[in-house]
Write a structure and sequence with these properties.
Elements (H helix, E strand, L loop, with lengths): L3 H6 L5 H10 L9 H4 L9 H12 L6 E5 L5 H10 L2 E6 L2 H13 L6 E5 L12 E7 L8 H11 E14 L5 H11 L7 H10 L4 E6 L1 H17 L1 H8 L1 H19 L3 E9 L2
Parallel strand pairs: 1-2, 1-4, 2-3, 4-5
Antiparallel strand pairs: 5-7, 6-7
Helix pairs in contact: 8-12, 10-12, 11-12
Length: about 270
Amino acid sequence: MVDLLTFVNEHPINESSIKAALVREGKQIEGLVPSDLFPYDQDHYGGLKAVEELAEKAQFSAKSMVLDVCSGMGGPARYISERYGCCVLGLDINKTRTLSAARLTRWVGLENTVSFICGDASLIPLAENNFTHVVSQEGFLHILDKESLFRNCRKVLRPKGRMVFTDWVAASTLSNRDQVILRDGMAALGVHTEGEYRNYIVGAGFNSLETEDLSSWWAKILPERYKMYQSKSKEAGEAFGLSRFEEFIEAYRIFIQLIEAGKLGGMRFTAYSS
C-alpha cells in the first residue's frame, strides 16, 4: 500500500518534469510568464478547460480571496490569480510540493498574489470567515475525515461564500476489492457516492448545493492522460524507481477501467454558505 505522502512525492507531474519540459521548449527560468507553465503545471484532470469551468461556477473577481485545498504544484492557483487578478492561498499536506509550487510561482512573478502553506486539509489551520471561495480538484479523495474537511471548509468561508470542487464519485457497483485497489495504488483514502457527499456537505452547514456529472468527459480524457504518464516512464523511473512507476501506471489503468465500466465517476460540486 502506498501512503499519501509517498504517492504525491512520486507523482509524474513534479517540479523536475516541469523544468525539463521548459528546457525542451528552449525557455529559460528568467523571464518566464504564467502562461509558459500552463501546459505543464496542471496536475488535475482536464487541464485549463477544467479550471475555466470551475472558475465559471465560482464567479471569481479581483476582490476574491481564494483558498485552494490540496493545491499540488499550484497550477490552478496561478491561473486563477493571473486571469482574475485575485489573491489565492494554496494548502497542501506535502511539503515538497508546497515548496515547489512556491518556486514555480516566483519564476513567473506571481508571489505577491499567490502563496502556499503546508498543512492538513482536515484541520485547515486558518482564520474563520477569511475566504470568499474554497476550491479543489480531485484532492478530497485522498482525505479520510470528510466531516472535518467540510466543516473546516465552511468555517473559513465568509457569508455568501462558495466552495467548488471536483472529485471521484463511487457508484453502488464499486466493490470493496475495487476500493482496496484504489487505496493501495493511488492513495484514495475516501471514495464516496454522490449521496454520501451531499450528506457531508449539508451536514457541514452549507445551505445550497449544485452538482454536475463529469463522468462521460473523464472517460474521454483520462486515456490520454494515461498515455501522457506512460511517456514519462524514463524520467519517472530514474527519479522514483521503475517498479514504483509501473505500480502507479497499473493502478491508473484499473482506475480508467472503473470509470469506463461506470463503477466510478467524476462530479463537480458547488456549495454555498449562508
